[in-house]
Amino acid sequence: MSEDNLPSERAHDAHHGAVAVAGDAFADPGLPAHLPRRQDLDEQAAKHSERVVAGLFVLSMLATIGFIASYVTLKPGKIVYIFPVGHVSALNFALGLTLGLALFCIGAGAVHWARTLMSDVETPAERHPIEASPEVRAQVIADFKQGAAESQFGRRKLIRNTMFGAMAMVPLSGLVLLRDLGPLPGKSLRTTAWRKGMTLINPNTNLPLRPEDITTGSLTFAQPPGLSEDDDDFQDVIAKAALMIVRIEPDEIKDKRELDWGHQGIVAFSKICTHVGCPISLYEQQTHHVLCPCHQSTFDLADGGRVIFGPAGHALPQLRISVNGSGYLEALGDFAEPVGPSFWERG
Predict the structure, then answer these.
(1) 127 lies in a domain?
(2) CA–CA distance, 236 with 157 (Å, rounded to integer)
(3) Domain that residue 126 falls in
């Protein structure tokens, strides 16, 4: 500290103990001198900044159009390789990239507009009570009008029009997403891919199952023919059509309909838990119980797939099966009731 700012006298007040200090040790340094920008002095530079801002707004509009085009044209199941991300969903990548670019360009355009064309003069203001006085309110309105004038919003028509266009088009991205609210599901929640005469396919070998492939005490899985994991709708189809097959001694089956809908003790039930739709895969050989690993709902496959424990609300649907002329297990139709968790349309 300079000696000029040091106390020149230390006189202790008898009553308050104050120390007298000569001069102001913490003088207000004030604001630095305002330096004009190139755009303030050169109209060509200002025009260039205007074109940059407008270009960003136009790029935002093009990105919004790209978002809508991606949503309409790209299939949800299409997987592409993007370096260095790896294999990703083409639809998700395109939607995220285009929407992010649209929003970024609006923000970048606004920032560049403010830094190069709007007024950058710093104006200090004294602190004031929270409640504004009439004079302050009048000053705010005046400052707003002055700011609107200094922003050159009315003068820079190219910026104004492209900004309106970009901001008007960005909400279209959300409107397009409303497309997924329809059409109504109709009977799609009540039916699966199983039809009469379809053979039961082992998903591991992709070959039809014979009765001798199902051994007593084992748990085998099956799916409809013609499915491939590369299909766009594979997950939608298998989420309802997945089967689990067990062979139980006929005299151990307690439910008559279950016995009639099977073949020599071979019975097929939906693999989808009736609680929240998790795949069931845990089988107790001695009790013929299957356990859902998600919330421990337990079903008795020897008694019509009824619930014996857990939060599931109803029994596992059974698929009626038989053996065709070639000796393969086949379905005799679709499930008699909807598979998976309950839904509001279930009657």
Answers:
(1) yes
(2) 51
(3) 38-181
Do the strands 318-319 and 266-270 form a parallel or antiparallel pair, or are they unpaired? antiparallel
205 and 285 housed in the same domain: yes
Is residue 9 classed exposed, middle or buried when 0-12, 13-18 and 19+ CB atoms within 10 A define those classes? exposed
Q: Is 261 helix (H, G, I), strand (E, B) or coil?
A: coil
Q: Which residues of 232-254 are buried (b: 16+ CB within 10 A; e: fewer)?
A: eeeeebbebbbbbbbbbeeeebe
The domain that holds 228 is classified in CATH as 2.102.10.10
Q: DSSP readout, 29-70?
A: --PPPP---HHHH-HHHHHHHHHHHHHHHHHHHHHHHHHHHH
CB atoms within 10 A of CB 200: 26
Among 127, 149, 181, the domain-final residue is 181
The rounded distance, in Å, linking the Cα atoms of 106 and 112 is: 10
* pLDDT tens per residue across all 347 residues of the chain: 444 544 444 444 444 444 444 556 677 777 788 889 999 999 999 999 999 999 999 999 999 999 999 999 998 888 899 998 889 999 999 999 999 999 999 999 999 999 999 988 877 777 766 777 888 889 999 998 888 888 888 888 899 899 999 999 988 888 887 777 766 767 778 889 999 999 999 999 999 999 999 998 889 999 999 988 888 788 889 999 999 999 999 999 999 999 999 999 999 999 999 998 999 989 998 899 999 999 999 999 999 999 999 999 889 999 999 999 999 999 999 998 889 887 654 54
- Rounded Cα distance, 65 and 170, in Å: 9
211 CB-contact burial (10 Å; exposed 0-12 / middle 13-18 / buried 19+)? middle
Q: What are phi and psi of 18, to 5 degrees?
A: -75, 155
Please give the model's pTM, rounded to 2 decimal places.
0.53
Domain count, the chain: 2
